[in-house]
Amino acid sequence: MKEKQNKHRILILGGSGFIGNALYKELLSYFEVYGTYCKQHGIFSENKVFFNFCVEKDLLSPLLEKIQPTVIISSIKGSYDNQLKAHKEIEAYILQNTNCSVIFISSSEVFSAKPLHPSYENDFPLSETDLGRFKISIEKLFLENIPEQTTIIRLPMVLGVNSPIIFHLRQCIRHRAVFEVFPNLIVTATTINKLVVQIHFMINHSLRGIYHLASNNMVHHDELFKEISSKISDRMPIFKSVFSSNEDRYSALLPKHNMLDSNYQITISEVIEESSLDETIVSVL
Fold first, then answer.
1. From residue 207, how far is each of 15, 102, 218 by CA, in Å?
2. What domains does the chain contain, in order, with CATH numbers?
3. Measuring CA to CA, how many Å separate 89 from each of 49, 86, 179?
4. Helix or strand (DSSP H, E) at 124
5. Rounded-to-integer distance, Cα 100 and Cα 95, Å
6. Model confidence over 187-240: pLDDT tens digits?
7. Residue 2 gets which letter from DSSP?
8. What's the confidence (pLDDT) of residue 157?
9. Is the pTM of this model over 0.90?
10. Which residues are CB-neighbours of 233 under 8 A, at least 6 positions away?
11. Average model confidence (pLDDT) for the chain?
12. How many other CB atoms are found less than 10 A from the CB of residue 139?
């Protein structure tokens, strides 16, 4: 067992989710880590560092006062109105507790209305989707009111052998089912294993600002999943090509202004290799 660092007390909102739980497992041996869950009572209710929090019905402030976190990682889901209220509670808490910081997990959707080129950290966000507009509103809330305590992490597709997307791909391979690909869509990607190590590094070094934790190169969406499929199995799913336009479009975050050290970066070839490894069963706790 590694000696835990006393530097931070970390609360992961959405600690029962795919990203949140992977972060919990990465950080647990090093920090005092707490997480939230909403519906998965049988899995998390007996874990004393997990607290039941449902954004639709619970106030966040009592939990913040109980745990007194020094780092809040926001990866929660729920209705946008209720999420906004929870993030305003985070803002109010940090204004009163300036030793606390927030890491907000955002998305490439904040650039969905700018499909003609890849997007960098300092580009002005503009979205045509409800999710993207919501993410922009939370980014703006934190960056305008608590900029010195805010880290925005924008994510592309998060893959990896146990990711929901790759699990779905494997199911389609097994059953010769339809898997949709977008031949005219140029994307970046990352893996869950790389992501949690990157965030761990960022916490250690108290990095603030906007970060694009994505591969440093791009690929067409269909090529990515066809390559992963060919490495997983000799069989193939039924690839259904979906065209949203006649021209190439981008849903591609690229790091440029806030680059992590080279050993914390990732390429598309590394994403493919990690996503095509043999399946493993991973405990959520």
1. 21, 11, 25
2. 9-156+190-214+253-260 (3.40.50.720)
3. 21, 5, 40
4. none
5. 9
6. 999 999 999 999 999 999 999 999 999 999 999 999 999 999 999 999 999 999
7. P
8. 97
9. yes
10. 173
11. 94
12. 18
